[in-house]
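IS3 family transposase
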Amino acid sequence: MKKRYDERFKLLVAQQALHEDASLREVARQHGLAHSLVRKWRDNYRQHGVVGLRQKYTHHSAAFKLEVLERMWRDGLSRQQTETLFDIREGGAIGRWERQYHSGGLTALEPKRQGRRPMTKKPPSPAPPPDEERSHEELLEELAYLRAENAYPKKARCLDPGEADDNAGQKAQVVQGLRHEHSLALLLRAAELPRSTFYYQIRALGADDRYAPLKARIRAIYDRHKGRYGYRRITAALRQAGEAINHKVVQRLMQQLGLKSLVRPKRYRAYRGAVGQVAPNVLDRQFQALAPNEKWVTDITEFNVDGQKLYLSPIMDLYNGEIVAYQTSRRPVLSLVKHMLQQAFARLKHSDRPLLHSDQGWHYQHPAYRSLLAGQALTQSMSRKGNCLDNAAMESFFGTLKAEYFHLNRFDTIEQLQQGLDEYVHYYNHERIRLKLKGLSPVQYRTQALSAG
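Tokens:
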């Protein structure tokens, strides 16, 4: 279904797009919009003002359509430029008019009549002959139909006395319940139900019954993980339990049950410019690692609880996505990352020398931070300026953490949030399965790989 946006939101986006310091792609990425949609709002606002952003429903005449096409051809305009010039809101309309004109001329541009065609009335059925002119078989057939017609509404009221029998599924259920007493053809005639519809509804009712146990298992997994699993992870969990199931079936059943996962918002940024020494981008978006403690990534994110801030600084191992160390603090001070590093170093073997990648936040440019890395002979890597995709693995973890935990719960104090973060990180490392890890949690994957090696 096409999403609609109100006028104030369109105006905000259009004004941002017109600002000389902002690019269209940056504005589109900030609001989660398509680049082409932002460009369209900007051009409409520039050409027509606020009126160009309002919802508009117009039926264009053939003469107007021809005028638009002639102007586009004469001035060599693109379709988008023409849409903006004439304030045509319907996407792809000009291309459709052009094809219609080339195939049928001006007549093909005439608006089509809306709605369904009027149905022709069937001729009235001839009156049945009087009883004395009908055969014995015809009278018996009529009697059988009257009995079926009489039994049908009684059965419908017994099954669901609070509803009228105008639903195809309910009609099929009533007919199915009377088949042992009356002819199917007569019951379908009494219910005014086509034979094909009857068999379709019976199959559908049987399918619902067949999937009832599976729906219960899906809901149990969804509830156990507090709504954090989408259909892919629930499919993987079912397969681990021995259920041979297709992910499309799980997706369809979750839609029927109204179960879905959630989305993710903005993070804290610690960039203050060049306040120290910037390291090269050694990682270069090569987020795959062949062994544990080969490539690490880190960053800082911010939480807000009733105006009070809490900062989280974790280190993730790119081998299996495991959080190897983390630290929280009320302020984003240097000791936050120093204590995190000390925890992480305690996990290293004597021969481990992981690459540690971060953004260009001031903590990671600080001489004390760089000295700690040099003391362990670790290679430092940094994202390019203003390029969050260079540290996409860490950004993805923050998005998952906030979508699955922070935004699903209510916190009264910072201490409550800190305790919950400890529980979630343990859950993330030990219980939460990842599809790219063959349906295992990070710790399960690392343990299995080490035992196999």
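Residues 305 and 413 are 7 Å apart (CA to CA).
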